[in-house]
Design brief:
7 helices; 193 residues; mainly alpha; 0% strand
Length: 193
């Protein structure tokens, strides 16, 4: 089963190898950490859990922010474990080689699924700041949700940019990907008010 690694070279036969420019390396490094399908999915899942666990429009306290942070982190770890398991099972089942081992399938699954956990890092920062009282709890939740929109839009932009698409296509990709986060925010505001 092939990886969906967009970091692989897109060189065509007959192209001569050349060193990628520094901007392209930064884009690929960002993509390798957050731009995998599991990373994008993890970002959307994390935002959904934050939105669902953050309660309604009432005043929120530090304890509420800590609850949202812990619940969201535990939830993303459970989703990640399920993703690793299902990916390992699918990879192992698809490998028809006699010598294939469960350990190889698990290694592949851990690599493919790591972006799901990494996706929770940036949106957790405002929740952590709210949990320790540096910013208000409600602001921490909203910052976390809007950071996921920003991350999704950035990832949508970068995937098309790395493929050499025109700026308009990159912007369209950013808008479409970011809309997943906006939908989560809209669901939060309409269902919890």
């Amino acid at each position: 089963m092939d990886s969906m690694d967009l970091n692989q070279s897109s060189a065509q036969p007959g192209d001569h190898p050349s060193a990628p420019d520094p901007d392209r390396r930064v884009q690929r490094a960002l993509w390798r950490h957050w731009g995998t399908p599991a990373g994008i999915y993890g970002t959307i899942v994390y935002a959904s859990v934050v939105a669902a666990s953050s309660g309604g429009a009432g005043d929120q306290t530090q304890a509420d922010a800590l609850h949202v942070l812990v619940f969201s982190l535990v939830s993303i770890v459970v989703f990640w474990m399920a993703h690793v398991y299902s990916t390992a099972l699918g990879f192992h089942g698809a490998d028809e080689g006699v010598g294939s081992r469960v350990r190889d399938a698990l290694g592949h699954a851990l690599f493919e699924s790591s972006g799901m956990l990494e996706a929770a890092v940036v949106p957790s920062i405002p929740l952590l700041l709210a949990a320790i009282g540096i910013i208000p709890a409600g602001l921490g939740v909203w910052l976390s949700l809007w950071l996921t929109v920003l991350l999704l839009a950035l990832l949508g932009y970068l995937v098309f940019l790395m493929r050499g698409r025109p700026v308009l296509v990159c912007l369209t990709g950013a808008v479409i990907t970011g809309l997943f986060g906006v939908v989560v925010i809209l669901l939060k505001t309409t269902l919890q008010h």
